[in-house]
Amino acid sequence: MPALLDAAATADRLPFSLLADEIERLLGDATVQVPARLVQPLPGGGSLFVMPALDGRLAITKLITFTPANAGTARPAIQGDVVVFDAATGVRQLVLDGPTVTARRTAAVSLLAARRLAPQPAGPLLVVGAGAQAQAHVEAFTAGLGVRELRIVSRTRASAQALAGRARGLGLRVEVVDDADAALATCPLVVTATPASQVVLNGPCRPDAFIAAVGAFTPRMVELAPALCRALAAQGTVVLDTPDAVHEAGDLLQAGLDPAGFPTLRDIVLGHATRPGPVLFKSCGWAGWDLAAARCALREEP
Q: Name one GO cellular component term (predicted).
């Protein structure tokens, strides 16, 4: 029988630095195929995501629901699974916890981007948001970049303090702050990981800033002020996680920018040059990242 992994077992198979390495390998793998994902609206404002991907060895499908109304409740906003098959035989090999894969592979993608693009990768780090994605990014940047100082901004003090406690457990010096824009003056490393229902960052940012914006992954979602996006495009570099983001990057689309003109993470891995100045890494998600997680999980099999 294939292994059916819960959240903890899935996390154990996906160490952040090794997952970032696997993502980098996947970007150079010519056998990878990723069809367009299906996003089906659900009653009540949620969405069902069906996300397949394959390479020369594996075929995976991530099947998850995203329910924004669950924010602030005991139910997670993201629920579901990643099912992993042997591509040649069709045999199911593994079932991974979908929310854990989503959080960890998203943070690992940001980690890879920061390795390649962040002028000051050691931070201090500012995280806007205090949910699962924020926690994953704190863990990933601590493990993979050596971050030791953290500022947290969240809509609720309790969630910010909870994340602060977990971060202190990792050995970080942590401060919960109220003004994200003011914190930009001392934080060259920034992650926005919110429900993306409103602008949470207006700027201005430092000239050596690296901003990973991961909360907005549909055209109508937004975390960054339009003026900030336009300033980052004019003064520095904007990088997309994949070409699919041209249709999904709400932050950029609502700023009147054409995402098709920006390089992708694959371009960066393959040697695309960037210019000096601040960097905006706009991440919208891709089933290829889930495939990389499946590959990593099988490599890490006990």
A: cytoplasm
Distance CA 70, CA 42 (A): 14
CA angle 265, 20, 164 (to 5 degrees): 105
Residue 244 carries which DSSP code? G
Domain 109-285 maps to which CATH number in 3.40.50.720, 3.10.310.30, 3.40.50.10170, 3.30.70.20? 3.40.50.720
Partnered with residue 51 across adjacent β-strands are 62
Going from the C-alpha of 89 to that of each of 92, 93, 96, 248, the distances in angstroms are 9, 10, 19, 34
Q: What is the pLDDT along the chain (302 residues), one digit of tens a residue?
A: 568 999 999 999 999 999 999 999 999 999 999 999 999 999 989 999 999 999 999 999 999 999 988 877 888 888 999 999 999 999 999 999 999 999 999 999 999 999 999 999 999 999 999 999 999 999 999 999 999 999 999 999 999 999 999 999 999 999 999 999 999 999 999 999 998 889 999 999 999 999 999 999 889 999 999 999 999 999 999 999 999 999 999 999 999 999 999 999 999 999 998 889 999 999 999 999 999 999 999 998 76
CA 201, CA 111: separation in Å to the nearest integer? 20
CATH (residue range 3-101+289-299) = 3.30.1780.10
CA distances from 299 to 12, 13, 16, 97 (A): 12, 8, 13, 17
Of 1, 6, 31, the closest CA to residue 295 belongs to 31
Residue spans of the domains in the chain: they are 3-101+289-299, 109-285
- By the 8 A CB rule, do 289 and 53 touch? no
Helix (H) or strand (E) holding 157: helix 157-169
